[in-house]
Fold each of these.
Amino acid sequence: MRLVVVGGVAAGLSAASRARRIDPSAEILVIEKGMRISWGACGLPYLIEGQVSSIEDLVVYRREVFEKERNIRIRTEAEVTAVRHGARELVLANGERVRYDRLVWAAGARPARRASGGRVFSLHTDTDGERLRAFLETQRPRAAAVAGGGYIGLEAATALRARGLRVRLHHDATTLLNREDPWLTQRIVERLEACGVEVRLNEPADPERLDADLVIDATGMRPNAELLAEAGAALGRTGALAVDEYQETSLRGVFAAGDCCEARHIVSGRPVWIPLGTTANKAGRVAGANAAGRRERFPGVAGTSIVRVAGLAVAVTGLSQQQARREGFSPVEAVIEARDRARYFFGRRLAVQLVADRSSGRLLGAAVLGDQGVLARINTAAAALAARMDVETLAGLDLAYAPPYSTVMDPLLVAAQQLLRML
Amino acid sequence: MRLVVVGGVAAGLSAASRARRIDPSAEILVIEKGMRISWGACGLPYLIEGQVSSIEDLVVYRREVFEKERNIRIRTEAEVTAVRHGARELVLANGERVRYDRLVWAAGARPARRASGGRVFSLHTDTDGERLRAFLETQRPRAAAVAGGGYIGLEAATALRARGLRVRLHHDATTLLNREDPWLTQRIVERLEACGVEVRLNEPADPERLDADLVIDATGMRPNAELLAEAGAALGRTGALAVDEYQETSLRGVFAAGDCCEARHIVSGRPVWIPLGTTANKAGRVAGANAAGRRERFPGVAGTSIVRVAGLAVAVTGLSQQQARREGFSPVEAVIEARDRARYFFGRRLAVQLVADRSSGRLLGAAVLGDQGVLARINTAAAALAARMDVETLAGLDLAYAPPYSTVMDPLLVAAQQLLRML
């Protein structure tokens, strides 16, 4: 069995590694367009900020781990230009053909708009990161504009401000982080402004025309789905590749995982396109397992994410109230503020927002803002979503307490109790 | 309706406050044996260590909050000596009788053995804390012995070592923290020894005879259940008061909550006695609601707790493998070590142990050791226990990731994946 994996980062390498573990005899080849494999693009903002000194520090596993320990062939700087599924072959940019029995398409996503170069940057590839870093060091720009208020835009604004630049953030919608949540947006804007970042919401901006020494274009991403679609694979309504719960596309024996494809949202039940490294890793494992003959299911996503915005941890999972309403729920929302641990252990303020469905009492979503204590609350809420837990059960969870780590009535439980009174 | 609550800390005040919210017209009286109400005994180790400068800093709400804002009468230094349930009255130490319609018994627990005074201390009441602190400051002891390897013993050993004393910990069993977990015990012992604490396991010790300038007796607790038992309330097999899911005792109209009573364990389904402030608060709320005429259920406990041992966060939830075996499961266990966040954000080592039932695949318990990242993993596991989640679902949870807070494949998921391979 010859398995070809297109894409050499999170989803692709998870798939290849998992397939190898299941099938020691398969021939496995990973084809990567770029020069590097197994590096974490999530670290790019920290390369810009200076926390990470080199792209090499973002590499998760060395190439040798795959080639020597896992017997996985790796080809870098090899770009696929066509998929001929009838012939079970890929065509590369140099004309070469690569035969496959099974294919895992993990080609990722790309910025919706190609930055022109010069003072305008995307923040997506390793080259983007290195070019931006060199620009910062050699050109010493003083004023930066960031177009886009998704997590990449917010992380970029944070990183540039931390380097001492004047930063202006432009976002075309009224709410940040694709969350349709005015409360969350308000809290993020307050923090950004308190840290000296100017924020302009609801103001479409062409990155190429923004007045600044340096512009980050984080206006949006597109799934790398076209080549497979041309070969006949169905796209979902989001424009990303449609996959079933086994990560199989509409082409038999062709699996997809990561930023190029959709996933089922565990709250709404609908296919969504929320490209994140966590999903890529897990869906990649499932794609790899099934390409190697297993029959495993990917359970779907809750859209759980966390992002550091000017020192504030901002985390979300599930649906906001507005999103829930659009999905046909009758949502209610509670927001509380509390300390994340004992005052005498330097407890920080934590804000917890919970959304539940009025008719069923089921938890639909959560947002948490604060410091290091945010992760515990958002992940507990994410587990509750996966279990389709109601707010009453959530309010009764037996959570851990000691003064250095939490409070006797955990903020998540306080929020759940408040929400319970509104149901 | 006249509601009398016996006990003026976590469970009692939660009950009184909740009853007031539900019934604005009830007469509510709280009777407390000690001088203070609403203080958190969980803070005593930090008073000893010096992180907290006064018992007053451990007070959660001032007395006025209850008396003025909530219209709850408070009597301190009032000790109940008998319960005459036939007459619906309490007898106080001064001979006075106090009538009730409904009673919430939240009398807590006490050290199993009364420390003799002098150089031997319990660490339970506010007076214990103040006396020990004064002893440390005036007598300047150099060598301390701690008897008991439950969480109070471990916290006391940590606090005294942090003050610079030589510390020896004696424990009568082979495993610490009532967990029957050799792996967990081994990790804790290693940490204590690395911090200069001498540990003697499986060595029964009479605190009064230990050779040291200062001895902490943390050898065990007993529920304050006798007076209510004499009035006819049934005790459970653990020796604590038996209650139903509404926190009602076998005496009609008499509810109990907190360290004096049992709770149902959500994994084993059996009544257990695991006295913790978190449980006291939540069960107190339920007792108060039901005493005020509601019909709410307490969902039970998972035994979730976290304790700081010489700088190491040690957290458990559910059952250890040995405990699970005794409860009739066929448990399997996986242990992994991973970083709790990105290396370039100073990620610390985190160890995760998961226990699951081989036949059903259901998660039965977890233990997590590490730094601030421990809370997120143990609470997520606790939520999974409440949902009776299987390991496969756990391994597929959509958890939050950004380099300052976690890793792309969360340590909890890595452990779940490992356990899944063993099922």
Amino acid sequence: MIKVLRLGHRKARDARITTHVCLAARAFGASEVIISGEQDDKLIENVNDVTERWGGPFKVSYQKDWKKILKEWKGEIIHLTMYGIPIQDIIKKIKESKNEKLIIVGGPRVPGEIFKIADFNVAVTNQPHSEVSALAVFLHMFFEGKELEKEFENPKIRIIPSKEGKKIVDGGVKDDKAS
Amino acid sequence: MIKVLRLGHRKARDARITTHVCLAARAFGASEVIISGEQDDKLIENVNDVTERWGGPFKVSYQKDWKKILKEWKGEIIHLTMYGIPIQDIIKKIKESKNEKLIIVGGPRVPGEIFKIADFNVAVTNQPHSEVSALAVFLHMFFEGKELEKEFENPKIRIIPSKEGKKIVDGGVKDDKAS
């Protein structure tokens, strides 16, 4: 089980990037995103709307006190940062334990103490790019591509893969609980 | 050689996402991004500034007439779209030819003809997430992780990977041309 903690969200500036972080987290197999920084109910509503339509389970919530989350976290804490150890050198070690993982994604102004609290500071390349791409490639490497086959539960719509068009169909995954 | 065509850029709304697309393209081994949609000199300046500091080669440019680019393109055209064929089912075929590749990333309103023009419509999951994560994971799978080892030329600064801190050093990759 992987959860993501998004630090330092700024409502005006980061709405789209944080939304993309949440959607990438969901698409690549994380089970939850906790957003810290500024409260942004609209963003959470948008992400929940995607989960409602495309399937779950996936949770997104706001938590101002990120220190509390870290203090209470029982599994490993993995901080994605361009300053860290290259993912290809450390991913095997990260996968050794079966504990839950908390993945921290921040921005340029992550508090220095995060580097100390994290069990692993991991660099998805030591180059500047994006928390969205860093998280997606981390999850892809962590799940070894199996996340690409993930089926979501109770979707209202889903895509039929197509060589050259758009095919969307209603639901299609049987919901036994609802029957 | 991989180039990326970013369609439909909107200056006000997409500045950060398109910047992240460009930086992910650079970090994960593409050699160039061509931006279409609205002209955005500031964005191009920002990306060039990253390349100047962190190393190249990497090119970013604006081209209003994307149809011309597609018409003149000699290699394969790959359109990243959630409606396409799952990447895990098609990546091997995409890699068969050694031609240059043009990767198209758009937004929700990609013109329908792109689906026809593309040699491959490729889905990095059939779920909604982000052009940034789709591009990064595509490049990661295309380059099979070798892109993570990429060394950029003539950086002014670079990171020394660190277990728990930030280590940045000046350049460090010898620039024979400049000596």
